[in-house]
Amino acid sequence: MLPCRYLAGASSLALLAVLGLAAPANAQDDAVSVDEVIVTGSFIAGTPEDAALPVNVIGQDEMQKQGSPSTVDLLKSIPAVSGVLGEANQYAAAQSTGSGNVNLRGLGAHRTLVLMNGRRMAISPGAIYVDTNMIPTAAIGRVEVLKDGAAATYGSDAVGGVVNFITRKNFSGLEVAGNYSLIDGTDGEYGVNLAYGWQGERGDILLAAGYRKRTELPVKERDFALREFTDNPQGGWSSFGNPGLYLTSANNGFTYTNSVYDPACAAISGPGCQFQFIGFNNLIEDEDHYQLYGEINFDLTDKTKFHAEVLYAAHDVQSEHSSPSYPPNNYPTSALTTKIQGNGFYIPETNPGLQALLSTGQLTGTAATAAAANGMFTTIAWRPIGVGGNDLFGGTAKHDKRYFETYRLSAGLKGEFDIAGGIGWDAAVTYMDSNAEIATPDILVGKLQMALRGLGGDNCTGTTPGQNGCLWFNPFSTGVASNVIDGRPNPGYVASTANSREVLDYIFGEYGYKQRSRIFTADLVFNGQVDAVDLGAGPLAWAAGGQYRWSGVERQNNDDTNIAVSPCPDSSVNPGATCAAQNGPFSFFGALADYDLDYSVGAAFVELQMPFTDSITGTLAVRYEDYGGNIGATTNPKVAVKWQATDWLAFRASAGSTFRAPPQTQIANTAVTNLSYTTAAGGYRAYDLWGNPNLEPEEANTLNLGALFEIGDFRASLDYWSFDFKGPINNESGSQIVNAIFPNGPTGANNCGVAAFAALQSRITFAGACGASAINRIKHYYVNGPDIQTSGLDFSANYKHRDVWGGDLNFGVDLTYVLEFKVAETKIEGIVTAKETDYVGTMDYLGYGSQPQWKGSAFAEWTNGDHNIRWTIRYVDDMIDTRGGSATFATNQKGRKIDAFVTHDLSYRVFLPWDTTLSASVINVLDEDPPFARLDLSYDPFTANPLGRYYKLGVTKKF
């Protein structure tokens, strides 16, 4: 996912189009008309922008006037879009930092089809949506946004709509663009774009390149994001910390049951040894984005044209900041602990860290006596490294790595048969190969246990702890000098017991894998008209064709991550280990299986455009797709009508059915692990999401009814839209599983052992007996979930008032109002886990996402010759947190309502001599903080941004 975030001038603003943020605008493309236009949503040439389908077409000039907002901010601002991936990705979707997407109607990014020049793109590796950050923004000339289901035209995935990025046409010369954004708390963001175009008698060439740099914005640079426990218990706080909780033995080391807090908790940690990991994180990571694009068009004959395009794009996140270590969900066997007790790590009395606690008198009483005699055990309310930071990665956060790159090649021929009627044809093949390399350091269970016993280290020989190259790991506060986030010193620090980088390097492994996503399509489209069929206002126009589509996804794990190589907790020190519960060797993440999955799709379609009268035109489209196997085939029709009632008023309507097949990973017997805060457990837990071979395709019926107004310089549109889903593909809610077993929170009555809940309880793995504090990990599946009904209204308007102060005033507004987002009753393992609910106006963070009822933007601009200045207001409605009735808000109601987010942007553009354009913007003029939400970063990253007020300057020079 690689869109250039801050791209100055024409190339940058192309991204604005991405989502049609602006009010309706005429299509512009390098100020040169195109001979034949096919608008997104139709394969029939000449279909106008204001046809029966709700399509927004935005050209470069209109985009430039927006002030080049960042791609993420732009996506969030579009009223028809709700819930966008972008900022703070590690809490929104695993291993996706640097990625972007489009989520029309809040139906999920996987239900918005993203095209480039009308051709499909591969999904991002490990995801089920296209990464919009891979679009070559310097090459984009316009963006078309179809806000209606389009399965009848494009097939699966075009459920919520289509976004089509179209490259520049008839561009000649060299263009260089640069931009810089001054953002408080960062080293700024900047980008450079190059575009070169050549025009010949029989062909043309377009070459483009772009680079974008983002620099990190630490959480501690924003007061709103780093809050006290009493203010936001969900604000990155965990009851599993270091310093943490331990166990001593009351029966001479046979078992360990007596709880003991590390003495330094009060001095350097949170209340009750609470650990605030969020201070180690970034709101924005350090990212590098690269794009290269080339395109050639050539007239082979007077009626046959050749087109080819090639794209390379990548983004690199070398150090995504995360918690210094994770709390263990996986524990060594008795063979390594030398004790019969499980679900913890054994710390012998000879461990230097424990000896320091005892010798300095920090541990006293019976706890000291028991520890001196029999050592200690860890509990699940502990982690190996906490407030002191991780010295292996520079002393603060742990550094994760994310690298994505993609290659895309598309080539085709189009022409016209020299026969009566003039039948046009278009044949093309497209191949795209996207790859990702993910590396997340995590502690290896077996190696940690060996180091706690003084037998750690790659060069350890013999069986004498701390000798012959053998290393100790100190799990106590005695090795921690201070809280590195707030600077509080540790009075009990003993420098000689601090953990060395060598032992840290030994206990950490790389939870790593490579993922690949590929797509190959072959398209053949014919179009023309039948002069003999005239229904009253002209001949019947038609298009027909077929598509072959192959897609494949792969995952290859390193040896430590691969369940076939390292299936057990002890595998890191005993490669031949066998175990019943194959959770792998890492303390937090579960083992993964390699996979190589693919399927093929054959499709055929036909589209008819019927001008019944001079004022009424109808369109009918039907598409057939065959996936074979368990998925099967589907036929999806769509009908659309436009009636030009008067010169200034027109009505449009469309209705159709859509279809989305389950992706390969969702029907394969494999799992991915994500981290989610679990209120009942008081911290983060691992959720293993498994594929389901019995998944069926989801279906939906769509409807759009609209009116178009155009009176002089006033243009407006009003549309009613609805989507009615049957069996939508979703993953079961892990939080609903937990809440069903523990409906009264961590300490209230629960359903452990209740026969009716037995199947549901089996989805949770416990570290011991069934209990909220003992929750280890949760298993859930992809399913055909409860039916969904959503509907709403779109309104946009634009008015130009001419000859004001020597120039023209232009006003625009774009609004979306959601009437309903109703989800039917949910059952998991026969238990009702959620009643029928209307999610409009709510934030359902672990379920249906952020669904504000109102979203809108309005602008006023003044243009005088070479000068243009625009003021834009953006509005996101308030929302209610759906966890309001849960233990999350049991004692603290703050944040149950997430306030509306209103921001103001000011942009100025001027055309200077020597073909130079200068743009300057102030984004979030009033420096509004995002509204408070009871989430890790204390705001909702899907609808707001953490940047505050920032300044942007861009320059574009044409040669």
Describe the structure.
By secondary structure, the protein is mostly beta strands. Among the domains are: 240-273 and 324-396 and 444-499, no CATH class; 662-696 and 729-784, no CATH class. Helices cover 9% and strands 43% of the residues. The chain has 13 helices and 47 strands. The strands form eight sheets. It has a 22-stranded antiparallel β-barrel. A five-stranded mixed β-sheet has the order 1-4-5-2-3. Strand 7 and strand 8 form a beta hairpin. The longest helix has 10 residues, at 365-374. The chain is elongated, with a radius of gyration of 30 Å. Residues 1-37 have low confidence and may be disordered.
How many helical stretches?
A: 13
Report the end-to-end length measured between terminal Cα atoms: 30 Å
State Rg. Answer: 30 Å
Per DSSP E runs of 2 or more residues, the count of β-strands stands at 47
What class, by secondary structure content?
Answer: mainly beta
Strand content: 35-45%
| Largest β sheet strand count, sense and barrel closure | 22 strands, antiparallel, barrel
Mean pLDDT: 89
Task: Give the fraction of residues assigned to helices.
Answer: under 10%
The general outline is: elongated
